């Protein structure tokens, strides 16, 4: 699972598209928006997940019987539009003080790791909404492949104002889906943008052993067409990045020069020895800015497929990275 974060400012055009999807997609205008507990309850119902650890083996055996419901080819599945997967979810931090306690950090701001957990759960539900079929339980096992991008409009999130998440599928391949999600926070009577996130999800069979086909996506109008093309460009970028990986390609000339310069800058000119190194000004050794974490996982950390919840791992990775950055600074 990969995580990349980019910080931007301003209000992107994607929020305008979200408002248009809101008028046509799944809405809860007659009642209260569902919260994250409702999201996770819905996910458990969709896949038939066990609610007790004691019966998780039976639940997984029952999922194997859903293999026959998988599509043999993508063309057998009905096409969907972006509005079909549009979802809004509430995180009522302002109106529920007990919930707020779960999200607070020591600086009295919202823990970003908790937000990553919520985005991960929401992204999976959005994909299941896109692939919804007539059967009560889905044969698909949808998992997070990577977090492609997170654009932050605000670096500090207030803990005492309600939050709203929106999202929908923005691009579809054969067995993968790109999900666009937006987080907004209520200030006064207006929701203002906090972040935009792009996740990539993949569909697997009920036993999570092989890829499974998902419904194709048909853009409706120029805005959606542009969003779909962005998804295609993102896919090509990821393929190019994977092709240029150090696991497949030798370092470039520029990369070799950077490493060589680092070596020369730490070499003791008096001894010219690998054993004698000099720390440049305003620097620390890499090994002195390294932290490790150990987490013993229990059934409480499992996801709907009885594996470790990816959002939990993202939160732990982010918080370890945050602590490492603090030790460096």
TrEMBL record:
Cited InterPro entries: HOTDOG_ACOT, HotDog_dom_sf
GO cellular component: mitochondrion
Gene3D superfamilies the record matches: Hotdog Thioesterase
Single annotated GO MF: carboxylic ester hydrolase activity
Keyword Iron: no
DNA-binding keyword on record: no
UniProtKB keywords: Hydrolase, Repeat, Serine esterase, Transit peptide
CDD domains, A to Z: BFIT_BACH
HotDog ACOT-type domain boundaries: 85-207, 287-329
Example GO BP: acyl-CoA metabolic process
Superkingdom of origin organism: Eukaryota
Coiled-coil residue windows: none
Transmembrane segments: none
Family to which this protein belongs: Belongs to the acyl coenzyme A hydrolase family.
Name under which the protein is recorded: HotDog ACOT-type domain-containing protein
Species this chain originates from: Pelobates cultripes
């Amino acid at each position: 699972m990969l995580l990349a974060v980019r910080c931007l400012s301003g209000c992107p055009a994607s929020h305008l598209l979200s408002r248009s999807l809101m008028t046509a997609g799944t809405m809860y205008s007659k009642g209260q928006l569902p919260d994250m507990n409702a999201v996770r309850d819905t996910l458990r119902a969709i896949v038939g997940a066990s609610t007790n650890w004691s019966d998780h083996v039976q639940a997984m055996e029952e999922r194997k019987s859903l293999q026959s419901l998988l599509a043999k080819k993508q063309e057998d599945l009905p096409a969907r539009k972006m509005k079909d997967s549009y979802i809004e979810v509430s995180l009522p931090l302002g109106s529920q003080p007990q919930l707020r306690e779960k999200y607070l950090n020591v600086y009295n701001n919202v823990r970003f790791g908790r937000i990553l957990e919520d985005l991960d759960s929401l992204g999976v539900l959005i994909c299941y909404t896109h692939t919804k079929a007539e059967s009560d339980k889905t044969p698909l096992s949808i998992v997070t492949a990577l977090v492609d991008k997170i654009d932050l409009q605000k670096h500090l999130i207030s803990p005492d104002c309600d939050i709203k998440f929106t999202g929908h599928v923005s691009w579809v391949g054969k067995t993968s889906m790109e999900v666009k999600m937006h987080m907004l926070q209520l200030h006064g009577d207006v929701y203002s943008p906090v972040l935009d996130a792009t996740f990539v999800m993949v569909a697997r069979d009920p036993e999570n052993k092989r890829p499974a086909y998902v419904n194709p996506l048909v853009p409706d109008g120029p805005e959606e067409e542009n969003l779909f093309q962005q998804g295609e460009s993102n896919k090509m970028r990821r393929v190019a990045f994977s092709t240029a990986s150090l696991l497949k390609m030798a370092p470039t000339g520029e990369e070799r020069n950077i490493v060589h310069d680092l070596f020369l800058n730490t070499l003791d000119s008096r001894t010219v020895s690998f054993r004698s190194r000099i720390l440049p000004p305003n620097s620390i050794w890499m090994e002195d800015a390294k932290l490790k974490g150990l987490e013993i996982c229990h059934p409480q950390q499992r996801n709907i497929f009885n594996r470790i919840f990816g959002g939990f791992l993202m939160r732990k990775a982010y918080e370890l990275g945050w602590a490492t950055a603090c030790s460096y600074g």
